[in-house]
Amino acid sequence: MDDFTSLRVLDRFKWLFQKLHIDYAVMRKILQLKLTMDGRRMPTVFNGSRVKKEGNQFKKSLWMYGFYGLLLLTPFLFLGDQYIFFMSILFSVLMFIVMTSMVSDFSAVLLDIRDKSILHSKPISPRTLNAAKLVHILIYMFMLTGSFVVIPLIVSIFKHGIVFAVLFLFDIILISCLVVVLTAFVYLFILRFFSGEKLKDMINYVQIILSVAIMVSYQLVARVFEIVNFDISYTFTWWHFFLPPLWYSATFELMLNNNFSIPIIIFTGLAILGPILSILLYIRLMPAFERNLAKLLSDSKRNRKKSLGLNRFWAKVLCRTKEEQTFYLFASLMMKQERELKLKVYPQIGFALIFPFVFIYNNIRSSSFEEMSNGNMFLVIYFSLAMLPTIVPMLKFSGTYKAQWIYGVAPIQNKFSIYSGTLKACLIQYFIPVYLVLSILFILIFSIRILDDLIVVLLAAIAITLISYRLFDAEDYPFSQSHEFMQEMSTFKVLAGVLVVGVFVLVHFIFAKIPFGLLIYIVLLAVGILIGWNKVFPSGTKVGSTS
C-alpha cells in the first residue's frame, strides 16, 4: 500500500491523537487501507470492453472546485479593507459549498457501517475506529476546501499580505473541522432517538432540513449589513452569534483592523473555541455514536401496501406496456429503498424547494408584494427544475449494483422500457411532490392566473428530464454502477443541463408576451415530448442489441 502524503502530514500530529487516547498506529493503518481502496476501481463487467479507469475520481474532480473558487471567492478579495463585510460573504460562500458537499457527498461515509463486521471483531477501540472515520472525511474535506481556496489564497498574499493569507488558511482549517463535527452531531442526535426504518427515513428528512438551513443561513449573513450609497455599515445584534461566517470574518477585523470591540472579541473566541470544543465533545461521544450506528442494521417492517397501490396506479396510467410498468415499479422501489441514492438526491430536493422563495424574498425587499404578485416573478419556479439535470445521471448508481447481471438474463423484449420506466418513476417520486407543493404556494401568491404557466413548467420538466438523459451516458442501465463512480459525472454536462433550464425560461417568457402564446407553447411542448420520447425510447429493441 502507498504511504500517502496526507498520512505523512498526519504523522506530525501523532502526539495529539495519543493524548486523546486514540491508538494512532491502528488508526493510521485503517486510514491507509481506506485511502488505498478509494483509489481502486472495479471494471464494470456489463459494459463490454469499456473498462473504468483506476484512480481516485474525487481527486480528479478537484480542478472543478479550483475553478469555482476563482469565480466565486477571488472577487471578494478586491473589496477593500472592510474585512467584517467581504470576508463574511466569502466565508458564507465557502461554508455553503463545504456544507453542501458534506451533506450530499460525505454523509454516506460518516454513516457507513459496511466495515463493522470486519473491524469490530478485532481488538480495536470504538474511539479509534470513529477517529479513523472522522479523519478519513477530514482528509477529503481539506482536499476539497484546499482546491476551492488555493487561488484566492495566492491572490490574498499579493493583495493583503502574508499575515492575511496565514489567518485565512487557519480559519479554513477551523471551518472544515466545524462543518464535519456539526454534521456528525446532527446525525448523533437522530440516531439517539430513532431506530429501524424510522431512523432511515429521518436521516433523509434531515438532508432536506440541512439543505434548507444552509440556504437560509447564507441569506441571513447578507442581511447583516446595510449598504446605503455604497457605504457599508455593520450593527451588532444578538442573533449574529449564531452565524459562523461572522465569527471568522471577525478574526481579520481583530488582527488587521485592530477592532477590539466586545462583539468582535467574542466572535473571534467562538471561531477558535467552537471547532476545538466541538471536536473534544465529539470524541467523548464517539462510543455512543458507534453504538447507535448499529441501529441502521435493524429493519422494522413498514406498511407498503398503500405506497405500492399508488405506484401501480401511476404505472398503469403512465406506462405503455406491461414491461415498462414492471420497470417503473422496480425503479420506484429502488428510489425509496436505496439509502445512498437518497443521501445524494434529498439535498437537491431541499434546494429545489427553497431556491424559488429565496428569490421571491429578495424581490419583496425592493418592491411591494402587490407589484410582485402581478408580475412575472413566478418564473423563479424554474429554479426547482435545476434539480433534474443533477438527479437524472444519479439514477445509474446503486449500492446493489452487482445485481446488474439480471438485465442480461431477464426476458426483456425492449431494453428502452428500462430507461423510460425509470425516468417516469424519477419524475413521480422526486419532481412531482416538489412541483405540487410549489404550485399550491405559487397560486396562493400569484393567484390562479398562472395556471397555464404551471402547466408549461410541468411539460418543460418532462422535456428537461428527457434532454438530461440524452446528455449523459445513455448506455448504462439504471442502478448498475457503484456510487464510487459518481465523481466521474461530467460537470460540464451537468452545467449544460442547467443552462437548458435557462433556455426554457427564456422561451416561456417570450411566449407569455404573445396573445394565446402559452396555449400554443403548451401544444408545441406536448407534441415535442411525444415525438422526442418515442424517438429516444423506440419499441422492439432487446437487451444486448444495438440501435
Automatic annotation (TrEMBL):
<feature type="transmembrane region" description="Helical">
    <location>
        <begin position="376"/>
        <end position="395"/>
    </location>
</feature>
<keyword id="KW-0812">Transmembrane</keyword>
<feature type="transmembrane region" description="Helical">
    <location>
        <begin position="134"/>
        <end position="155"/>
    </location>
</feature>
<keyword id="KW-0472">Membrane</keyword>
<feature type="transmembrane region" description="Helical">
    <location>
        <begin position="202"/>
        <end position="221"/>
    </location>
</feature>
<feature type="transmembrane region" description="Helical">
    <location>
        <begin position="345"/>
        <end position="364"/>
    </location>
</feature>
<feature type="transmembrane region" description="Helical">
    <location>
        <begin position="454"/>
        <end position="472"/>
    </location>
</feature>
<keyword id="KW-1133">Transmembrane helix</keyword>
<feature type="transmembrane region" description="Helical">
    <location>
        <begin position="161"/>
        <end position="190"/>
    </location>
</feature>
<feature type="transmembrane region" description="Helical">
    <location>
        <begin position="85"/>
        <end position="113"/>
    </location>
</feature>
<feature type="transmembrane region" description="Helical">
    <location>
        <begin position="260"/>
        <end position="283"/>
    </location>
</feature>
<feature type="transmembrane region" description="Helical">
    <location>
        <begin position="492"/>
        <end position="512"/>
    </location>
</feature>
<feature type="transmembrane region" description="Helical">
    <location>
        <begin position="518"/>
        <end position="537"/>
    </location>
</feature>
<feature type="transmembrane region" description="Helical">
    <location>
        <begin position="62"/>
        <end position="79"/>
    </location>
</feature>
<feature type="transmembrane region" description="Helical">
    <location>
        <begin position="427"/>
        <end position="448"/>
    </location>
</feature>
<protein>
    <submittedName>
        <fullName>Uncharacterized protein</fullName>
    </submittedName>
</protein>
